[in-house]
Structures are given as structure tokens and as C-alpha cells.
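Input/output pair, single chain:
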Amino acid sequence: MKILGCVAFLLLLGGIVCQNNRQNNAKASGKSTKQTHGAEIGQSSTEVDLAPRSTAPAGSSRDRGTGNRGATGATAGAGSTRQQTEEMRLHFLKNTQVTCNDGTAAGFYLKEFRGSRRWLLFLEGGWCCYSRETCDFRYQNMPRLMSSSTWPQTKRGSGILSSQTEENPHWHNANIVFIPYCSSDVWSGTGPAPNPLPRPRAEYTFMGSLIIREVIKDLIPKGIKQAKVVMLAGSSFACPQRWGTGVLLNIDRVASQLEQMGAEAQVRGLVDSGWFLESKQQRSPNCPATVSCSPEDAIKIGLRLWNGVVPERCRRLYKKGEEWQCFFGHKLYSTMTSPLFVVQWLFDEEQLRVENIYMGSQRMSQEQWQYIQNLGRELKTSLSDVTAAFAPSCLSHTMLTKSNWITFQVKGTSLPRALQCWDKNLEATRNNRTPARGCPFHLVDTCQWPQCNPTCPALVDQTTQQELTLLQMLVAMGLDLQSLGIDPQEDADSLVSMVSNGG
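Output:
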């Protein structure tokens, strides 16, 4: 009875603190906490579709791509000036030889801000396919990640892609380019596979790295050569085993391309939820014959299929066949020459799913709980030498394109503020000035537990859709708090302090 009473007390205490935290967050953002997982671009965030979509059959490949390009010149008909300003419009690549997986035209969405010399290029996430089976499955179930045939003519961004000052205080007035992901190669492919995967009327091509190159070329008439700052950013896509690694692999290549074009822009990278650690899960030794590869094995196989490339400075560190290690930020970072800002939840839900841990939807063992705690510690260690980072101690995935991204804080500083501080520091360094003090941009939570940051997104029970505190969720998943070393009587004060103050 004593134990039950203690547990009840602790759960009640956690509920009160969590409720207060969410109320504070709501006041800060002016929005309901139910907007925590705001619409991400590429999903339901599209509000306007001004042109009819192609109805060509799925196998028409390159012919369909040519047909789609005819819609590029469509202009906004009726609609307010504000809508036209906020929307990003679709442009297909001028180089028709660089395409999506199925041969349809690759392209980008652009919202120009006249007079601005700042450019934000955003790479969509979406993991990859690495075999005939995985590519066919992807084509059947996620065709928009392999084909442009159903892309809408306009998109409206959220978070860092928003045009609203209150939602995007530091980057709302930049030229914003959103590059849809349709190459299935983690943005690393350079052409058709050496041994093409046959389809009835087409073959897959993997041109992610080339798509980025061609987008840069097509932006020259729009003024990117006169840019002062070019930020290459990207988020992981909210689905198992999907990383925002394209930025890490391409940032130095983009900087080199712009330099060769005569541009004097400072090129920077911003990667959201792409700083992953290697999987500890034991996998089948017959991975090539299955669709259950670990991320490492998938990349090893995929690199050959995609004609994939990795940054040259990193490639030199590893012998042939080991280039896959350059897909991991903590191994690639030291070889990069461009400034990089890492945004990473310390307890990323997709990193956990790779280890078959699903918060709020299954039973959990003590070993899995221990893995979660170790993950936070290991991620902190891996970020210790990163110059610019924002890493809250929360269970979540992606941050940049959430409409309430300004509400997340580490040590009292929001992500937009940290990015502004980083911007000021880089500008001061470039102009040989002393950087401003009291403007932090390396922000990693120091508290040890998931959800110990008071600005964390709320946890939701996948069965009931009810919000829970972390301790309530652990109990619901079958864990005994006493066996985890939690003594509600002795640790109550420290737990209140931990949850209230965060890192």
C-alpha cells in the first residue's frame, strides 16, 4: 500500500507540473498545445492547388515528366496578394535529363522575397529504397517520394518555411526554396544504377545529388549568385528509418558550386533530426534478400545501386566499401568545411523505432528503458564538439517545420533565437569583429531524463490519444517505477526541480 500511495502521489505531481508547463507554452505561443505536432510541409499543409494534376498512367515515365513541365508557367489567378506572397510555386528543372526515380521531372518550390539576399534551401526527407523489393514497395505505397506526377502547383510552409513574422521571426523574409524528395537515395545519387532495376515500362534512376546541383543552376536568374547567405536546411520525414542526412552529404558540394559560379555567399547547413547513431539492433544476415535491413546495411547496399557519392574529405578516411560511415553526422562533422547547426531531440522517436521501441503503443522492458536513457547520454557526447546545436531532452521527431517551433527552449533560449545568435556570430567572425556575448547557440539540455525539459511536446497514448506525463506512460507500458530506482518519497523534490527547470 505504501508503494501504491507513493506512485499515485508521483503521478499526480507529474500531471500538475506537466499541465502547468503546457499552459505556459500555450501562453508563449498564443496557440493551443494540441498544435504541438503542426502540419509538416508535403503532407496536409498544402492549402492551394491552382493547376490540374496530371492523370497520365504510372508507367508513362519520361513522357509524363515532359507534360508536367508545361504547368510551370501557370500564374496565380484569383486570390489575395497575401496568398500569393505566402505560397511557394512549383518549378520543374530546365535540365530534363535529371529526374525523379520514375523519370518524371524533378523540381522545386520557390517563394521569392524581393530585395532579400538571404536564401533558404530546404531538402525534404524521406529515407530510401535499396533493392527491387523495397523500391517497388515504395513506388506502390509512397509514389510522391519517387514521382512528381501528383505534386501540387503550390505549397505553403510552416515553421522556418513560414512567411509570417510571428511564426518565423528570423527567416520569414528570405527567399525560400523547398526541394521535394523523389530520388530515394538520401540525396546522394548521381545517375542510373549500373545494373538498372527493371520495371514494365521504365527503370528507376537515382539522381538526388544531381537534383540539388540543377536547382542551384535554375536559381541563378532568380538572383542566388548575389546572395549574402545561403542556408541549406532539411528535416527528417516522420516515418521509421528516415533521416535528414541530405544536408550533411551536400552542404560542402553546394558551397563549392556557388563559389565556382562566382557567388560570394556564406553557405551554411541546418540539419533537423538527422544526427543519428548506429543501430544496436541485431539483424538478419540475409539482409539483401529481405526488406528489414538496418539503416547501415541499407546504405551499404543502396550506395552501389544509386551510384551514391559522399563528401570527398570524409571518403578519404575510409577504405572502399566503408563509405557508408559518412552518412552519420558524428563521423562526418570533423571533415566538413561549411558551418553547420544541428537540431536534434535527445530522445528521437525515429532513432527509437529503429530499435523497435514505440513509445505509448507497446509494452516496454527494463532493457529498452535503459537503452532510452543511454541514447540521451550518447547523443549528448556526440554533440559535445559541435559548434552550433539545439538539443532538448524530449521524446519527439523533427522541429523546424512545426508551426509552434518557437515554443521549444533549451536553457531559456528558443530555436529561432539560437539561430539568430549563430547568424550574428558567423557575421561577426566573417567581418573580423568580436562576437556578441550572452547570445548562445550551443544549447544541449543537461537534465538526464526524457521530457525533463518543460517545453517538450506532450506525450500522447497511441491507443486513447490522451496526453500523458512520462511516468504515466511508463506505468501504462508495464514498467515498475520502483524497479527503475525511482523512490517517490525520497526523490519527489528533485523530480519537481528537474521537470520544472529542464536543462
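The first helix runs from residue 2 to 29. The first strand starts at residue 87 and ends at 92.
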